[in-house]
From TrEMBL:
Source species of the chain: Zymoseptoria tritici ST99CH_1E4
Per-repeat ranges for PPR: 834-868
Domain of life of the native organism: Eukaryota
Protein name in the entry: Pentacotripeptide-repeat region of PRORP domain-containing protein
Annotated GO MF terms: mRNA binding
Length: 1271
């Protein structure tokens, strides 16, 4: 061996100069792997070299760059030929081989030339590329080489039963994978469905492995010029053919030549008879030949299969034989082998699974039926019944089974026509084997459709544009038409869907499928839907009606009216539970007439009081949902009388519903009195639902102390654990009182308490409250942190969660992004948009002056059958009015504005069609203290006409409003209407009307916003005669007698000399002191006060402004940025200007939150955006200031600069006469510098913009003037 190796070394050194690749000489010593040279096969004959595979990976030259063709020693797996390497860790050292061996390997392993090769270039053996190498040998392969990089992984590793396994294109993507990126959901679906079905099918066929055979190898054919000689002349006999044969067929070949097939078969024929009869050798050789895609190998496979004794054939032998027959298209032979497998081996039914899937993939439906019939015929005995069902269990594992069932059903439909039969007989594949009957095809197709429906029901389809919807419908049609068990199956499918999708937001996604199923089910002759199914359908459809716009019956959209009619059709009358469900659901919808009809029906069909008792609360609840608290009270008394007539007690639920009605109408005192009656007059123990309406009213007022007091009383009266609804009310109260951080801490404490079951209920609403609070503050970072925290705690997301995220984007003027959340993200979370989401998006488009977009979005909402709300209707009319106001036809020739006649007509129609049922939807925009009601659209339309100075149109709209509101419970005008009317009369210069409406607003605020004190309900429960002992007080719970002097309230310290006391009225009368407003409603007068101060300022009644403002501050009211800036501007424009007071107030209350100027230089070329100009923040670094921030606006700073200039002139001319009432408020420059240094600095750094009209009017700067700061 060593001598032969030495000779090889000499020959290699002599001929190395002729090699195409040449290893540079290395000055280093040979690597240790040199002695493990991998040349152990030198003793083998030349034809035996290169026919077997190495068992381990081949070493790489550079593992980090193995993908590069210019630096890798080995080609890609599909171009690499296995080199002889019998020793596990051997290195292929090409210089050890003589030129004859290298030439033979090049000739035997024919390969195409690379583009860089010349015609006469000599090449190394296949599998190697030219590369410079600095060592005599390369390093061994790493042990941690990634899977798939070695020779063994060249052809993948799919399961042996892979005929039925799907490729990447054959598998429908899951919902999770399709929705990981919400923005690309629709694009991904369109791309997956854009490729024609036929091209998808062909691609799938090429990727699916053959039954029972992995790593199929394409055999390289002989070259046309090669001469094929008989094997005995082509190959030389060897003395150990069995050893070489086993070595050749072992492992996994990567590339096989036709000559290798002939050589292996020659080796097998060279064996002695006893070795050739070895069943194990035949089995191994058969499997090897079956892996080769070659006609010669296929014939050898069949020969070996039939040479095997029947008792020696295994499952893999039958699979290999079937695969070979299928490659050649011989279905008859495949059927014979399949039947033999079923008869001869116990696990032959496993072949049926793969064979059947192959036929389905090949769309050979008649062959699939034949396979199934053979399977059932041979396994017809009772002991094999389980195997038959096991077959269909395996069929359910086929990917995209619904598509195959759809195609099979279409094929069966075509079989009914003679034209289809003629086409079928002309198909060369169909003329083979037994032709199944039409009945057999229908039976197999029907069972396949059954299994496909069972598989697809958990995730039917996404959206109306999903092509899978049509496949499901056609599959159901086939079952209904041909399956004798169709009634049972449809009932099973319906019950399964209704059980899986119980939540309304989830059921909405499968409503169309349920509708189609039920419509098809009721058309089957002789069916009678059971009562349980009808009751479940009725419940789902009534819940859907809460958010669906006027649903009409079609075959793909059933309604609850149809189910109620079917109840009477099939069962004579509604069941008691169904009648009560229908009545209570109509109450939730606010359908008063329908509730009355339902109750009359219930009394007629079920006259016993016991059958009616559980539905009586709906008579009260329908008025609560409609906002009719007085009618709810009357209904409560009627129900009480009805119960007394039957000797029954008043139920606690009735009290709770009446409290809910008072809560929705903002009747805090009536709620407390009713709760007092409940505790005093009955022995009922209040529960969570009893206290919750009162807690919500206190939360609206921001009464944190009252809520904490009520918590303590609940624990004493009930003793049960709190619910998360209590936590939500507490958080609302803190947020309304301006303590949002404390609200977050309350939620953080509640999360572990809920986990420990100390508090019951869901935390979703609590998180939504916090999300909305941060969104309204324009704190996008805190909003997203809360959202992430919510997901970390695995709190269930709902539709309101995403409405809060949309609101956060809308306040940042990004309504398009909000629409993306509504259209994509919500659908990916299996949620459906409701009216609140469309209202938020429409509000965003209105704020960005994109009125056509808001109108288009409203139309989209109606087209999608989303039930509109009061908010969407108001926003739609507002957008229409703003858009119509832009039209040049809304002005006369002299530019006098005209009324918006189209909008007024549309508003009149909307009011005529309006119903209190519109308030039944629990839209979060509905807020009794200042939210939506049926007439809420009037405020925005009146305001728009007021801005246009259309006084007559305002009077017309006010008359329309009073006529429409004459039947409402509350007589005073709402604060929104009052503010809109004050704006209209101020623009028209009618100051007397502004004063009248201000007095009305002041009275309304004192009535609705005053604090209340809570009675001690625990004391009432223990008193023997509690009536009249404790009453609800309207007095303020907190004293207001300790307020500072008025001079301190308007900006001066009580100890700072020489400030005289503030002016007081000459004559004082003894009047009742008004109560302080609740913390959550203390801002209610901000907008009316701004109009009142502007009206007084135009008449220079500055002392009236100060008296009004300071009295309200004393009472406890707070004001927003508009009111404060209006006050400062009024002080600056007074005659004379109250400069010192204006600067002092700005310094104390406004300048702390002033963000500064955007620029001091180059402002001449800076054009502010429209939105900052509308909010008065142009040239200020505060484009997205939180709504509760109080800072000076740009206009206010300019007014301060103008007042400062006037003050200098006054000082130059001798100043204001001392001793007057206003002299101390005018001040002087020295006092201004001492009292307001920061405000003075803001005025001095005011950017000079000569083109700004405000600066031109107040400061006298014109275009082209010197750009200097105002000092």
């Amino acid at each position: 061996m060593l001598e032969r190796a030495t000779a090889c070394l000499k020959v290699g050194a002599r001929d190395s100069v002729h090699c195409a690749q040449r290893a540079p000489r290395s000055k280093r010593q040979l690597h240790s792997t040199f002695w493990n040279h991998g040349a152990a096969d030198i003793e083998l004959p030349p034809w035996a070299v290169g026919t077997h595979s190495a068992n381990n990976k081949v070493a790489r030259h550079d593992n980090r760059r193995r993908q590069s063709r210019s630096t890798s020693l080995l080609k890609d797996p599909d171009q690499r030929t296995q080199v002889p390497n019998p020793q596990g860790n051997g290195i292929y050292l090409e210089f050890l081989y003589p030129p004859q061996a290298l030439a033979w390997m090049q000739r035997t392993n024919v390969q195409a030339r690379e583009r860089w090769e010349k015609g006469k270039a000599r090449r190394l053996p296949d599998g190697f590329l030219q590369a410079s190498r600095g060592f005599s040998s390369s390093r061994p392969a790493r042990d941690d080489e990634p899977k798939g990089s070695g020779v063994e992984e060249s052809f993948g590793s799919r399961p042996i039963g892979g005929l039925g396994e799907a490729s990447a294109r054959d598998t429908t993507p899951s919902v999770e994978s399709a929705t990981n990126r919400p923005g690309n959901t629709r694009q991904m679906v369109s791309e997956l469905n854009s490729q024609p079905l036929e091209s998808q099918y062909e691609l799938a066929r090429s990727e699916i492995p053959i039954l029972g055979i992995r790593d199929v190898v394409e055999v390289t054919p002989d070259h046309p010029g090669d001469t094929i000689v008989p094997p005995e002349h082509e190959f030389t006999p060897v003395h150990n053919p069995l050893e070489i044969l086993r070595r050749s067929i072992g492992g996994r070949p990567n590339s096989v030549h036709a000559r290798d097939v002939r050589r292996i078969w020659f080796l097998y024929q060279s064996l002695d008879p006893s070795a050739k009869d070895d069943s194990r050798l035949k089995h191994e050789l058969l499997l090897y030949m079956a892996r080769l895609r070659d006609d010669t190998a296929a014939s050898h496979t069949v020969t070996l299969f039939y040479a095997l004794p029947t008792e020696a054939r295994s499952l893999s032998d039958y699979e290999a034989a079937i695969v070979v027959h299928l490659r050649s298209g011989d279905y008859d032979a495949a059927f014979q082998v399949h039947r033999q497998a079923l008869q001869n081996i116990p696990n032959g039914y496993q072949i049926t699974r793969g064979f059947f899937q192959y036929a389905m993939r090949d769309r050979a439906w008649q062959h699939a039926v034949t396979i199934k019939e053979d399977h059932d015929e041979i396994l017809s005995d009772s002991a094999s019944a389980n195997k038959k069902e096991l077959f269909w269990l395996h069929v359910m594992e086929v990917p995209d089974l619904i598509t195959k069932a759809f195609l099979f059903a279409a094929y069966c439909s075509r079989l009914e026509t003679k034209e289809a039969e003629a086409d079928m007989m002309s198909d060369p594949r169909i003329g083979q084997g037994r032709m199944p009957s039409l009945e057999q095809s229908r039976a197999t197709c029907t069972r396949l459709c059954q299994e496909a429906m069972r598989k697809v029901l958990p995730t039917p389809y996404r959206g109306d544009d999903d092509p899978q919807k049509t496949k499901i419908y056609r599959t159901l049609d086939h079952i209904r038409k041909w399956d004798v068990e169709a009634p049972r199956l449809f009932l099973e499918y319906l019950e399964d869907l209704l059980r899986r999708f119980q939540r309304p937001i989830h059921y909405k996604g499968v409503h169309l499928l349920v509708s189609y199923m039920y419509s098809s089910y009721r058309e089957i002759p002789g069916v009678k839907p059971p009562q349980k199914l009808l009751e479940t359908l009725l419940a789902r459809l009534l819940e859907l009606a809460q958010t669906t716009r006027d649903p009409k019956y079609t075959i793909k959209n059933i309604t609850y009216e149809l189910i109620a009619a079917d109840f009477k059709l099939y069962h004579g009358r509604l069941s008691g539970s169904a009648a009560r469900l229908l009545m209570t659901s109509h109450a939730r919808l606010g359908a008063l007439e329908e509730v009355r009809k339902d109750f009359a029906y219930l009394q007629e069909q079920y006259p016993l009081y016991a059958d009616q008792e559980d539905a009586l609360w709906a008579l009260i609840y329908v008025h609560a949902r409609r906002g009719e608290w007085a009618q709810a009270r009357d209904a409560f008394e009627e129900v009480q009388q009805m119960a007394a007539a039957h000797g029954a007690k008043t139920q606690l639920k009735w009290w709770n519903v009446l409290l809910h009605a008072y809560s929705r109408a903002n009747k805090i005192r009536a709620s407390l009195e009713l709760l007092e009656r409940l505790i005093v007059e009955t022995d009922l123990i209040p529960e969570v639902q009893t206290f919750h309406p009162v807690l919500e009213l206190l939360a609206l007022r921001g009464d944190v102390d009252g809520i904490e007091n009520l918590f303590e009383q609940f624990e004493k009266l009930n003793g049960g654990p709190h619910q998360t609804s209590f936590v939500g009310s507490y958080m609302r109260a803190l947020i309304r009182s301006g303590e949002i951080q404390e609200a977050e801490q309350v939620l953080r404490k509640a999360v572990p308490d809920v986990r420990a079951h100390k508090i019951t209920g869901s935390l979703t609403t609590c998180f939504n409250i916090l999300l909305v609070a941060y969104a309204r503050q324009r704190n996008i970072e805190a909003t997203m942190q809360t959202y992430r925290w919510m997901k970390e705690e695995r709190i269930r997301l709902d539709a309101q969660t995403f409405s809060a995220l949309m609101l956060a984007l809308v306040v940042y003027r990004q309504p398009d992004s909000a629409v993306t959340i509504m259209n994509n993200t919500m659908w990916s979370e299996n949620l459906r948009p409701t009216a609140i989401h469309y209202a938020i998006a429409m509000h965003g488009f209105i704020q960005t002056r994109r009125f056509p977009k808001a109108i288009s979005l409203h139309k989209t909402m109606l087209n999608k059958q989303v039930k509109p709300s009061l908010a969407t209707r108001r926003l739609y009319l507002q957008a229409k009015a703003r858009l119509e106001a832009r039209s040049p036809t809304r002005y006369t020739s002299d530019r006098t504005p005209l009324p918006l006649s189209d909008v007024i007509a549309e508003l009149r129609d909307a009011v005529g069609e309006a119903d209190k049922a519109d308030m039944a939807n629990k839209d979060p925009f509905f807020n009794p203290g200042g939210g939506e009601d049926v007439l809420s659209s009037f405020a925005s339309i009146i305001r728009i006409h007021g801005d246009r100075s259309c006084v007559e149109a305002v009077k017309q709209l006010l008359a329309m409003y009073k006529d429409a509101a004459k039947d409402t419970n509350d007589e005073p005008l709402p604060m929104r209407i009052i503010s809109a009317l004050m704006n209209a009369h101020f623009e028209a210069g009618n100051h007397d009307a502004v004063r009248e409406y201000w007095n009305l607003a002041r009275a309304e605020a004192d009535r609705t916003a005053s604090r209340v004190s809570l009675p001690d309900f625990t004391l009432l429960a223990t008193l023997e005669d509690p009536l009249g002992s404790v009453t609800v007080s309207e007095e303020n719970a907190h004293s207001t007698s300790d307020h500072e002097d008025i001079s301190a309230e308007i900006g001066f310290s009580a100890q700072a000399p020489p400030v005289p006391p503030a002016p007081t009225p000459a004559k004082t009368t003894a009047v009742a002191k008004p109560s302080a407003p609740s913390p959550g409603l203390d801002h209610i007068l901000s907008t009316p006060l701004a109009y009142r101060m502007r009206s007084l300022s135009e008449r220079n009644r500055i002392m009236d402004i100060l008296d009004t403002f300071t009295s309200l501050v004393r009472q406890g009211y707070v004001f927003d940025i508009i009111a404060w800036n209006t006050l400062i501007q009024a002080l600056c424009t007074a005659q004379p200007p109250l400069v010192l007071l204006a600067f002092t107030l700005t310094e104390r209350y406004l300048i702390d939150q002033f963000p500064g100027w955007t620029t001091s230089k180059g402002a001449r070329n800076y054009a502010p955006r429209p939105e900052p100009k509308r909010s008065g923040l142009q040239y200020i670094k505060g484009r997205y200031l939180p709504f509760d921030v109080i800072a000076p606006q740009y206009k206010t700073i300019v007014h301060l600069a103008s007042a400062l200039t006037r003050l200098k002139r006054i000082e130059t001319m001798g100043g204001v006469r001392q001793g007057s009432d206003v002299a101390r408020f005018v001040g002087n420059m020295k006092r201004v510098e001492e009292s307001a240094p920061r405000t003075l600095r803001a005025v001095e750094t005011l950017p000079i913009v000569p083109s700004d009209r405000l600066q031109q009017r107040l400061l006298g700067r014109q275009e082209g003037s010197r750009g200097e700061m105002y000092t």
